[in-house]
Amino acid sequence: MLSGMADGWAPGGIDTSVPSPARIYDYLLGGKDNFAVDRAAADKILEALPDVLTVATENRAFLGRAVRHVAEQGVRQFIDLGAGLPTNGNVHQVAHEVHPDARVVYVDNDAMAAAHARALLRDDKVAVVHADIREPSAILADEAVTRLIDFDEPFALVATAVLHFISDADDPHAILAAFTAKMAPGSHLILTHGSVPDPSHEDELVNDAYKGSGTDPSGRTPASIRAFFNGLDFLAPGDLVQPRDWPTPTGAPAPKTLTVLAGVARKP
Ligand SMILES: C[S@@+](CC[C@H](N)C(=O)[O-])C[C@H]1O[C@@H](n2cnc3c(N)ncnc32)[C@H](O)[C@@H]1O
User: Fold this and answer.
1) For residue range 122-146, what is the model confidence (pLDDT) as tens digits?
2) 119 phi, psi to nearest 5 deg
C-alpha cells in the first residue's frame, strides 16, 4: 500500500500546501516522504495516466542498470540532475558497488530532496547541491562540483525524469548542452524523458495535478528527446527505447497512456 507522512510535520523551508514533483514521485515509488497534497496530486496523475506507476518503477530500475554499466566502463564520477528524494538504489550506492571511491554530486531544487539527501549522507565523496538546473553555470561553479568532479576525466551526467519539468521557454536543450559541453571523451549521458502519445487530454489533467508546484511538465517527441544526445554516440541498442528495454528489448507492449524514453550515450 502507498503511504506517506501525516500532515502538519515538515522541516523548515518545505511547503506542504502545494505538491512537489519530488514528493509525488516518492509516493509513486512507494516512499514515505510525501504529504496529503502530493498524494492527491499523484492520484490525479494516476487517473490521467494509469501507467505512471509502472513507468516510474521501470525508470528507477533503468537508472540503476545504466549507472552500473557506465561505472563498469570505468567512470568514477557522476552528476545527477534532478536526483529526487533518496530511495532504493541511489546513484552513489550503485556506483560505490563498482568503485568504492566513486564521486557523486546530487542536484535538486526541491528543499525536501536536498535536506533528506544531506541528512543521509555521511560521505565526503558524495555531495548535494540544492539548485535549479536552469542555472547550469551556478551549478558548474558550485564548491561541491569543483571539489568532487574533475572535468579532465570522464564523468556521467544523469538526467532521468527531470527535463520534462523544464519548459521550452527555458530551453532544456541549451541547459543540458551546458553540462555535456564539459564532457571529456569517455563521458556518458544517462537520460530518460516523458513522451505522451496524445498530449491533448492527458497533459491537461497532469498539468492540473501539478498546479502550484511551480512546474509545468510536458512530454516531448522522440526527435526532441534524441536531440539531447547531440554529439554523443548511443550505446546498444543504439537509440532511445523504453526504460524496460534497455539494454535488452523485453518485447513487452508499450504502455498505452504514458511513454518514457531512455538512452545512454558516450562522448567519443
Ligand atoms: C520524477 S523525479 C526524478 C528523480 C530521479 N532523477 C529518478 O529518475 O529517479 C524529478 C526530480 O527533478 C527535480 N526537478 C524538477 N525540476 C527541477 C529543476 N528545475 N532543477 C532541479 N531539479 C528539478 C524534482 O524536484 C524531482 O526531484
Assistant:
1) 889 999 999 999 999 999 999 999 9
2) -65, -35
The answer to whether residue 44 sits within a structural domain is yes
Count of Cβ atoms closer than 10 Å to residue 231 Cβ: 12
CA 70 – ligand 1 centroid, Å: 21
Report the nearest atom of ligand 1 relative to the CA of 134: 19
Structural domain includes residue 16 = no
For residue 51, being part of any structural domain is answered with yes
Is residue 233 situated within a structural domain? yes
Which CATH number covers residue 72? 3.40.50.150
Host domain of residue 51: 21-266
Beta strand 103-108 with 126-130: parallel, antiparallel or unpaired? parallel
Q: Which residue has the cell 546513484?
A: 91
* Ligand 1 neighbour 113 (Cβ under 6 A): yes
Give the whole-angstrom CA distance, residue 91 versus residue 72.
13
Structure confidence by residue, pLDDT tens digits, 23-72: 999 999 999 889 999 999 888 888 888 888 999 999 999 999 999 999 99
* Number of structural domains found in the chain: 1
Instruction: Give the other-Cβ count within 10 Å of 6's Cβ.
Output: 7
What residues have CB less than 8 Å from 174, skipping those under 6 apart? none
Q: Angle at Cα 172 formed by Cα 169 and Cα 177, nearest 5°?
A: 135
